[in-house]
Give the backbone structure.
Amino acid sequence: MHAFRLFAALVTTLVITLPVSLHVQAQTEGQWSEYDDVFEDGARHANIWQWGWTGIYATSLSVNAYQSSEASDPDDRFDARVGVVKSALALGGMLTDRQPHPETLAEYERLKASGDLSGVQALGLQLAQAERERRGWGARVSSLVVNGVAGAVIAADGRKSDGAINFATGMLVNELQIWTQPNQASSTINRFQPANLSLGPITIPGEYALHVAPQQLGATWRY
């Protein structure tokens, strides 16, 4: 009888523990899948963005260089010379200030191989911060200076309206460049952020997300 009770207790423990273990494993696999999307998609987007804008500015530089000597209108030749300088600066910026995502992907793969989920979470926060900085006002200062000087030079040539158009067009292109950058990490971090749940002497690492909707405020925590 004692052996039967022991066997029944063991079976009951397995029945309770097994679904919990499977649930935790499923959550962990889901977390890795989400981070795969963040880092792999971010690196892919960054490469497309990098080569795409590099090609745009290289083409612009070539066209302006040709127009600076071959255009029939003197004003067009003058504007093209200004365009050569702007395109060269923009191209140089693309070649020297690269997106952080490809390098971050390599670090993510290393952390994933070691199963370091907390390290991956910290890496995601760092990448999200870098994305936000690259979309901040600091990213617009150099463009504001370059386009402002270019517009002023053209205006000083006696064509104020052309100078204003050159300035506005340059700033618009810069905005497109900024807002087409990858932001996978920022979007994900806005949903879930690292957090620890303390239950007496026990600390459980996990993540939380806030949900804001009309007439409703909620939160989700997962481990």
Residues 6-27, 210-219 have pLDDT under 50 and may be disordered. The CA atoms of residues 178 and 215 lie 34 Å apart.
